[in-house]
Write a structure and sequence with these properties.
- By secondary structure, the protein is mainly beta.
- It is built from 13 helices and 54 strands.
- Helix 3 packs parallel to helix 5 and helix 9 packs parallel to helix 10.
- It binds 1-methylethyl 1-thio-beta-D-galactopyranoside.
Length: about 1000
Amino acid sequence: MVLSRRSFSALATAGALGLSLGSGSAAAAGTAPTGPAPVPPEADGERHTIGFDRYSMLIDGRRVVLWSGEVHPFRLPSPSLWRDVLQKLRAHGYNAVSIYVSWNYHSPAPGRYDFTGVRDLDLFLRTAAETGLYVILRPGPYINAEVDAGGFPGWLTVTEGTARTSDPAYLRHVDEWLTVVDRIVARHLHTDGGGTVVLYQLENEYADHVTGPLGRDYMAHLYAKVRADGIDVPLFHNDKGRNGHWTPGTFDTGGESGRYLYGFDGYPSPVKPPPDWGYFGVGGTKGGSTASPSTPGFMPEFGGGWFDPWGGAEFGGKGYAESARTRDAAYERRFYLTNLANGIKIHNVYMTFGGTSWGWLPAPVVYTSYDYGAALDEARRPTPKLVPMHQIGQLLRSVPDLAKLDRAGPVTGTDPRLTVYPLVNPDTGARFHVVRNDGTAEVTTPVPFARLPLTVPALDARLLAAGILVGRRKLAYSTAQPMLWLTAGRQDIAVFTGRSGEHTETALECASEPTVTVLAGDAAHEYESGVLRVSARLGGLTRVLVEGGGSSAPLLLLLADDETSGRLWRYDTPSGPVLVRGPALLRTAALRGSVVELTGDTVEAAELEVWGPRGVSEVHWNQGVLRTRATASGSLRAERLLPGVPDVRLPALTGWRRCEENPESAAGFDDSGWRVADRTSSHSTTPVPAGQPVLFADDYGFHYGDVWYRGHFEGAADSVSLSCVTGTQGLLMAWLDGRPLGTHRMPVPDRKTVRQGTWDATVTFPLPPAERSEGPRVLSVLVRRMQHDQDGKADDTHKAARGLTAVTFNGASPEVTWRIQGETAADPVRGPLNHGGLHGEREGWHLPGFADGGWKAAGFPRAERRQGVVWYRTEFRLSVDSAVDASVGLTLTDDPDRAYRVQIFLNGWNMGQYINDVGPQHTFVLPNGLLRTRGSNTLALAVLSDGTTPSGPGEVELTLMGSAAGGVPVSVVDSPGRAAG
Ligand code: IPT
């Protein structure tokens, strides 16, 4: 008989529990089976039911707690690296990934959609399925997400109709977008085994003031549209807080019920105690499930960090190290365990990998890095924040009792400084306590069931369990947090964790006295009245082997401190689970006969120890055969350490060549090919000034980056007043007949103004007396637009103008003909957000292969005073070992008083904007794939300086942000040069 992967695991599960389940009977009966979680999902071509009840999602009738991390494919423009990030999620215990799809990233113009190359959504969804992760899909149409216009395409900012309402003019565009997205998504739904998409979000944090008909009809329209497109998984919306907005029944779902979930987002302050939104499930009093009693607790976004604004510590921005510090590993334990205690069973951490808002993607409120202080940093490196995620994620996978919890009666006798949430699984009787310390002093407390007291460090939390199965035995209780259990060969293995140095007590029910061997570490044990108590001080890995005592199978008890637990990797293969200890990451494990083939990463030299199914006798690591020996723990252990990562040497950047631009400022520049700015009306929310043409760049099809204006007039004037709207950090610079008039920069926002500012200004430049005589004149203006505002409140704020808005001459009223020039057609490979309208960008100076032979050699640092734009280009070669995953960044540093900014192009890709006197970002990630780690690369820097100070660049160097031996194979991302572009 040939067993499919799924029926094999069902049988294995039934066997492990000593039950006699017929294959598939649990799913068929619609009951929720207990036992270890099923193997990770895959695109298996089989039908699956995806439902839910008030406790959790039910996939094929089986309870699943979704433990998800938010990742934005558009913030990692190198498709090979998607696999790296997704493998890191899976390895660390996540079973799902949540993604936004950003409309603007895929659509350069109405009716034009691109899902190829770095935009290959199909590939991302395939990779997620291959990695064994469920997918939560969030295609907007509005996403917010700190991206330009909250994800709306530039072209949508000039269309009629009120966005985010049922206005038919807007819905026409929305339908076009959803049609193309849904066509791809429909191939990856888990319902028919095409992929692993199990949930789909409509809109995003839709404002409460639109709960009237315009909003309700809009939501109903989206629901109907998505269903009509064949999306048959449950749909949901993310309420901005636990407000009870957009719960089932609040808008028309076409007569369907039970296929729409209520979800709400939470970004609580990390310096206050975690909020109780009330319990989802049975029991509990306030809030919680009262909003939506028949759907499970669902947080589509829970803050795992926070975004950082421009400006450095003295302004709003504190840098991402600060986001990671205030929402550290202990924050995760306190807040996420509280969420679980409140019945949240679909839990998505925003962000888990933040990535990079490259090009003109970032909304004005953020700079290029979107590191977010997330568990995986912008350079894809695991941070210590992954450890609690790993512990909790593995726990949810191993202990299905956690998927159905009711509040239990109160616990008495614990220290009142602790908050205790008692929970019980009504079917299995398993009990859990989430114990949290919101104080700044460590608390040691008696706990009712244990002999040893429990210590909870300051500002920390833990989960205690009693009555769960660990392999073929039952846990009476433990003061250490259970992490996982599995069966490997003839023995069961159970892992418990806690902080290093803690005294823990773990008690197992044993019908008779077992034989106990302490194989490693500091542990003592005693047996009394049917209970074996093992007390251990956590440090490294304590190993206790329990044999006999009424069970046929030995149990290896592993007590791991945090650091060690982060080096324990469970991987479920079709032939059974594998547990690996030692390396920095386990990516995959596969069994071929007696060989277990492992792939993964090391940073330092590391031990390797493997527990696998019966019959495994040989271990391969990253394709190499290891010599191993069998241990008393029932594992195979490599005789030698796995090597760490070899040194990675990066070259100095030399051979720079320099070229000045902005010919547009010169009187004689030929602008006859430019668009005449002669429109008289606009759909913008910014009023068109009386008697003046529309100057808003978007109205002429220029949506991103810099835009030039040339105003031709005759006659004398004393001064000119220029009004512009730019978004934070925008600027305007002007010339009259090639002579600089000056620059106006938006002030660096402070903490208060960063969000509310409209970032408009009017600046008056006196005209030089020599230029006041009659005669043809040209006023040239360059506006660095930052991006469009987001539309978080659904009041069309993304339609605020960008660019010049009005120009008034003083002392004369000449007739002016305005011509405008912004970006050229969207780059067919790099997409619409890659370049703006600088002369160099229009001429391809940023692209590889551009003939810069005529440019002059130049060295850094530089100190020249000039209003305008200067470009620098160089090439560099890398030869990073292909077995090394190096994370490389470009770092710019200079005297912070120098007023200039740099647009950074790597092989033609716009990797972000550096503002020397604003900050805080100095290092820009250059993702592998865009970066040729074995070959030649082109760097181009477009330096914009206002001429008030000497301008750099100062130091420009490559930085190694981290490295690991291992990684994933990386394909070079197509980076066409001038000829092909
Ligand atoms: C929530 C958005 O849904 C999400 O897109 C992102 O912008 C996030 O905030 C902040 O990074 S909105 C919520 C904070 C009101």
